[in-house]
Design a protein that fits this description.
By secondary structure, the protein is mainly alpha-helical. The chain has 2 domains: 26-282 and 295-391, no CATH class; 514-621. It contains 23 helices and 5 strands. Residues 84-239 form the Glycosyltransferase RgtA/B/C/D-like domain.
Length: 624
């Protein structure tokens, strides 16, 4: 069933065959080339970013040192506190470190392979609906999205999140073909584990996936509802087992759940990683100039996905995807309820619209790299709509739509490239002129070119993907560190050119201090040291291999440990040193508990200078 079905008088309403379109002879070699190219792009020079985000790297290292730290996603092998996300992504990185030895490359290897897997699954999902050509376009579009190249070479949880969401979409495509309960249950399992990767963000794709099945599955309404209920139950079970494990495990025998207010994983999901992200409680407010820092998403609104903070990360093909979605839904409005193309448009369109709307208007913490969750939907919509519109190129409406997609992509790429004016300045003109020329050929009558029409198709894909591909290759060629990584050219202002508001300072690893590092290496306590917040703690753990307690968690804001707990740790000789400074988080975020601990230490222990850093030996109280 094609997008032009409504203008063909001889089209029937019979649904497409469940097995999907047959593969052409060239499909498998082309797929192999796509996956090989993706692997090279994501694996080449994988260790150049070092530990990437120290926060997650330290937790992955802890998981190689202690199985309880692995299970709970603890920031330290002494199990004081977890990171502020569930541990599924850390499980993969730590297991890789256990197998191959912990290093930057072994930590990031699973992330890169997840990227290759996501491209393969997206190809498979789109191929079953529109054939191998559409699948290849979609897979290439995902692989060549700048923020995808960033996250699949980085150690944030987003790589596994994207892989699992694409896996769920593939399972829904299979489930929709025959109303399969088994495939729907597998989709639910994938989403459940996606929840254990990045919590409620995983569920933003549920409306699109559920709508596609509810509309198009070839059975009665009650059967469709029942099958969706099975998927929902599988989702709850595959996420709920771990929540139950954490809640039932004695709290004094596991690390504190970082980011939560009551040591609860469920509260973390609904609070810090849920309502607070959307409503804005605890998020980054306006900066000195009255505007929200660009690394925290810029101002909420309908234009955020296209703005200076988010635009260059994933929106290169977003206008084309939206045009293709609207045209596709219009052209398939008279097809059978079970038509697979329309079902896929509903699924990927629902994914894109719901996720994009939430990201656009949420008033809490959001970062540019979140947009990687949009990349599979954008890529799939482009692949499906381009292939189906090309099939109907003898008709005016599909031809004009293709031309509009080409021209809009070129114009938008020109605008995005102009935000980094010193980086390959000629590229934006090449893309703009080439796209408009191709659009003119498409609109004027590409169907009259006969076998030479394929040249126009190749030119359209070349100019449509050239800008995003160049940005992606430049992203992969660079190094990216810390929690503020963004895709884009090295040395270019990825936040919008001269005068753009830069991310707040204070994040990042400490300067080298060999004396302090040697001091910690010599300690054999449960925790070699404690310090407020995670920035210095993470850096020191990675440099020394020692366990360092991050008082207050990521930003020092969590009320863990309490003053009484910390005093008991000191009395039991479980923590040796207290290191001053290195908070590194947003100003004003350290908790009163952290302040109380620091004041108690300063009152009862004498300071010493270690390589320019103030350290308190907790085995040597004042007056002893």
């Amino acid at each position: 069933m094609t997008l032009t079905a409504d203008v063909r008088p001889d089209v029937t309403d019979a649904p497409a065959a469940p097995s999907g379109p047959p593969s052409s002879r060239w499909a498998r070699p082309a797929l192999a080339a796509l996956l090989l190219g993706t692997a090279v792009l994501y694996l080449w020079g994988l260790g150049t970013s070092g530990w990437a985000n120290d926060y997650y790297a330290a937790a992955a290292q802890a998981g190689t040192q202690d199985w309880k730290a692995w299970l709970f996603g603890s920031l330290d092998a002494g199990n004081a506190i977890t990171v502020d996300k569930p541990p599924a992504a850390l499980w993969a990185m730590a297991l890789s470190g256990r197998v191959f030895g912990f290093s930057a490359f072994s930590m990031l290897l699973p992330q890169a392979l997840m990227g290759v897997g996501a491209v393969a699954l997206l190809y498979a999902a789109v191929r079953r609906v529109s054939g191998p050509g559409a699948g290849l376009i979609a897979g290439a579009a995902l692989a060549l999205t700048p923020v995808a190249a960033l996250m699949f070479r980085f150690n944030n949880p987003d790589a596994l999140l994207v892989l699992l969401m694409v896996a769920a979409a593939y399972c829904v495509v299979r489930a929709t073909e025959t109303a399969s309960t088994r495939w729907m249950a597998l989709a639910g399992c994938a989403l459940g584990f996606a929840f254990l990767t990045k919590m409620l963000q995983a569920f933003l794709v549920v409306p699109g996936l559920g709508l596609a099945f509810l509309v198009a599955a070839p059975v009665g309404m009650w059967r469709r509802i029942g099958t969706l209920a099975v998927g929902a139950a599988a989702m709850v079970v595959s996420a709920g087992w771990y929540i139950a494990l954490v809640e039932l495990w004695p709290a004094d025998s596991r690390p504190y759940i970082g980011g939560s207010t009551d040591n609860s994983l469920l509260q973390l999901a609904l609070g810090y990683n849920g309502i607070e992200r959307i409503a804005g409680h605890g998020g980054m407010g306006p900066g000195p100039g009255g505007e929200r820092p660009l690394f925290f998403g810029g101002e909420p609104g309908i234009g955020r996905m296209f703005g200076h903070s988010m635009g260059t990360q994933a929106s290169w093909l977003l206008p084309a995807a939206l045009i293709g979605l609207l045209a596709g839904l219009w052209f398939t409005r008279r097809t059978a309820r079970t038509a697979t193309v329309r079902a896929s448009l509903l699924m990927w369109g629902g994914w894109l619209v719901v996720t994009g709307a939430v990201f656009s208007f949420m008033d809490g913490t959001i970062h540019p790299y979140y947009t990687v969750a949009l990349a599979p939907a954008i890529a799939a919509l482009v692949g499906i709509s381009v292939r189906e519109l090309w099939r109907g190129r003898q008709f005016i409406a599909p031809r004009v739509t293709l031309a509009a997609m080409s021209a809009t992509t070129g114009i938008w790429a020109f605008i995005l490239l102009a935000r980094t004016p010193d980086w390959w300045p000629a590229l934006r003109w090449i893309v703009l002129v080439g796209s408009i020329v191709v659009a003119s050929v498409l609109a004027a009558g590409v169907h009259r070119l006969g076998r030479y029409a394929v040249v126009s198709a190749c030119a359209a894909m070349l100019f449509g993907g050239l800008a995003t591909a160049a940005y992606t290759v430049e992203t992969a060629a660079g190094s990216h560190n810390g929690p503020m990584a963004v895709a884009g050219p090295r040395g270019a202002d990825s936040f919008g050119g001269p005068g753009a508001q830069r991310p707040p300072g204070g994040f990042g690893p400490d300067a080298e201090n060999p004396a302090l590092e040697n001091l910690l290496k010599g300690a054999d306590n449960r925790w070699a040291a404690a310090t407020i917040a995670s920035m210095r703690a993470s850096s020191l753990e990675l440099k020394t291999g020692a366990s360092v307690m991050a008082i207050g968690g990521f930003s020092g804001h969590d009320d863990s440990p309490t003053l009484a707990q910390f005093q008991q740790y000191v009395a039991d000789h479980e923590v040796r040193y207290f290191i001053v400074g290195g908070h590194g988080g947003p100003p004003g975020r350290a908790s009163s508990t952290a302040g109380d601990i620091a004041a108690w230490v300063q009152k009862n222990f004498a300071p010493i200078d270690v390589g320019g850093t103030t350290v308190y030996d907790l085995d040597a109280p004042v007056g002893a």
